[in-house]
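Late entry, evening session. Most of the bench is empty. Finally got around to the prediction I had been postponing all week. Sequence below, unchanged from the version circulated by S.P.
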Amino acid sequence: MKTQRPHRDADAPPSPLWCQAHEKVKHKSLSEVADAWLVSYRHQWAIEERAGRCYRKPGTAWWFIKYLIQRADTEELLGHIGAGPLEDFVRAYAPEYIDRIESLARRNERFRRALQGVWFEGAKDALTQRLCKLGCYDLNSRPVSKESGAKPRKRRRKQRHA
């Protein structure tokens, strides 16, 4: 399965999700990594099917995301749902779905945790402020809402290799 890397911004420090994922795989043998890759590749069709169905029909995408969050059995999966399908959904449909997103976030702790994996490029508008209050991270702005509990991300200088 082709997934988005939890750490996507080269200038930002590694996210807790990236660190968790790295800890889990750094002790795996190369054959274990290869076997896992083969299994994930066999299921690539699910990623493509999700993208095709969900982008044409936002109602289907909304149902799909809620179902994924309900079925996720680890924090890591919630983070990947946030950084993958939920992030894609927010980027595409937040203006139409913001009331439903806020309503579900008020009622569902797991959904709130998944929202913390959503990174987007917002504008200085009410929609961006509402998303940040839910725990989403605006790449155009350093501070994150105090209500979300998320820490501001500091920029690192790129290291030069000699």
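Two things to note before I forget:
The chain has one domain: 16-138.
The two ends are 36 Å apart (CA to CA).
Will write this up properly tomorrow.
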